[in-house]
């Protein structure tokens, strides 16, 4: 009798918990779909070729986001140029060269702490250090260097975890054939962990595209169209900063929703690319 009662309680408990989890999953999916649908429905009708291919003109009272698109591209390129060598190099050192567990644990703790700091603090530090102390003024380069610090933990940790997935037998086999340490890393370890490096790069691009608070302090609000090298030394608004300016300062909500739809599409493409890269390398490994 007691066993039957306990069995009924366990079944009831299991049914209740399953119902709660299904409800939580449904609410989460509904919120995500609502957000994506609302932004796309409000923004896609406002996207036009003129909006994408022209710069804002105050004489003609027309709005274009081409400078903001180019500034965002410049920020992505400049940030990746700095963050990928530093992040991948740090991960290789921690996983392959460093023998002190205390040092590894301390650096990992520091990177996790950096990843949890609010972006507005990065912007304040970037403004004081890069813009004022280093003399870069308000520029895209100062914003890119600030984004390097923000994205360094992501690239380093994803690369480090990918390096750990390479079996030690691969390294031992290469050492047994007489290969040196760096040759083993270059020809055996890195090719088998390239999926993690690419995933970290893609995730960093997504964070760069979505960042605004740090760039408000460091990159500025200008909507001027410049070349790559000239643009890095001048103030420029990214898409997220332009969205803030048009929505908050100028009340151009149609343009703001158009920019939001573009950012949403970029985010979906980046997530799809990350998932595609992961599945591609998993299929290659399974073969």
Structure description:
This protein is an all-alpha fold. 80% of the residues lie in helices and 0% in strands. It is built from 13 helices and no strands. The chain has helices at residues 2-43, 49-53, 66-97, 101-116, 119-133, 140-164, 168-176, 181-192, 194-210, 213-218, 228-232, 239-249, 253-286. α3 runs antiparallel to α9, α5 crosses α6 (140-164) and α12 packs antiparallel against α13. The longest helix is centred in the N-terminal third of the chain and has 42 residues, at 2-43.
DSSP helix fraction:
over 70%
Protein structure class: mainly alpha
Overall 3D shape = globular
Residue stretches low in confidence (pLDDT < 50, at least 5 long) are none
User: How much is the radius of gyration in Å?
Assistant: 24 Å
Mean pLDDT rating: 85
Count of individual beta strands? 0
Number of helices: 13
Note the main sheet: none
- Residue share in β-strands: under 5%
Distance from N terminus to C terminus (CA atoms, Å) equals: 54 Å
SSE arrangement, N to C: HHHHHHHHHHHHH
Provide tags for this entry.
80% helix, 0% strand, 287 residues, mainly alpha, 13 helices, single chain
Structure, briefly:
This protein is mostly helical and 287 residues long. 80% of the residues lie in helices and 0% in strands.
């Amino acid at each position: 009798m007691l066993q039957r009662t306990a069995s009924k309680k366990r079944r009831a408990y299991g049914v209740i918990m399953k119902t709660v989890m299904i409800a939580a999953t449904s609410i989460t999916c509904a919120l995500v779909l609502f957000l994506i649908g609302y932004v796309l429905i409000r923004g896609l009708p406002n996207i036009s070729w003129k909006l994408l291919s022209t710069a804002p003109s105050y004489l003609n009272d027309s709005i274009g986001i081409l400078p903001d698109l180019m500034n965002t591209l410049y920020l992505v390129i400049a940030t990746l140029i700095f963050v990928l060598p530093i992040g991948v190099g740090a991960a290789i050192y921690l996983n392959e060269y460093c023998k002190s567990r205390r040092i590894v644990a301390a650096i990992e703790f520091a990177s996790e702490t950096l990843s949890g700091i609010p972006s507005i603090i990065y912007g304040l530090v970037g403004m004081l250090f890069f813009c004022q102390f280093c003399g870069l003024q308000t520029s895209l380069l100062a914003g890119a260097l600030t984004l390097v610090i923000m994205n360094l933990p992501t690239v380093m940790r994803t690369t480090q975890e990918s390096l750990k997935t390479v079996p030690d037998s691969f390294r031992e086999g290469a050492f047994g054939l007489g290969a040196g340490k760096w040759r083993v890393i270059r020809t055996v370890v890195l090719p088998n962990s390239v999926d993690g490096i690419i995933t970290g790069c893609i995730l960093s691009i997504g964070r760069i595209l979505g960042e605004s608070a740090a760039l408000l302090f460091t990159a500025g609000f200008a909507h001027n169209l410049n070349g790559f090298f000239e643009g890095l030394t001048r103030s420029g608004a990214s898409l997220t900063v332009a969205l803030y300016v048009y929505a908050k300062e100028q009340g151009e909500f149609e343009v703001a929703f158009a920019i939001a739809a573009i950012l949403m599409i970029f985010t979906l493409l980046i997530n799809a690319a990350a998932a595609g890269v992961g599945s591609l390398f998993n299929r290659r490994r399974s073969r």
